[in-house]
Amino acid sequence: MKKLLTLIILFTSTVVSAGNLIINSNQSGASSKAGFDAYVDAFRAAHPEVTVVVNEFEHEAYKTAIRNFLTAEAPDVAIWFAGNRMKFFVDQGLFQDVSDVWADAGLNDSMASSKGSLTVDDKQYGVPWGYYQWGVYYRKDLFDNLDLNVPKNWEEFKSVCAMLKKNGITPITIGTKYLWTAGGWFDYLNLRINGYQFHMDLTAGKVSYEDPRLDATFDHWRELLDAEYFLEDHASFSWQDAQAPQINGEAAMYLIGNFYVPTLEEAGVKDKMDFFQFPTIVEGVGVAEDAPTDTMHIPSGAKNVEDAKKFLAFMSNKEAATNWATMGGMLSPNKYADKPTDRFSIMGAEMLAAADDIAQFWDRDANPDMAGAAMEGFQEFMVKPDREDKIRARLEKERARIHGAL
Amino acid sequence: MTFWERNQLKLAPFFFLAPAILIFLIYVIYPIIDSIWVSFHEWNGMDKSNLKPDGTPNWKWVGFKHYIMLFTDDEEFYVSLFNNIRWLVFSLLAIPIGLSLALFVNQNITGMRYIKSLFYFPFVINAVVIGVIFTWFYNPRYGALTLVLGFFGLDPIPFLADENLATYGIIIASFFPGIAYTMILYITGLTGVNREMIEAGRIDGASGFTMLWHVVLPQLKPATLIAVVVTIVGSLRSFDLIAVMTAGGPWGSSEVLAYKMYQESLFNYRMGYGAAIATILFLIMDIYIAWFLYRLFKSEKTEK
Question: pTM of this prediction?
Answer without folding.
Answer: 0.83
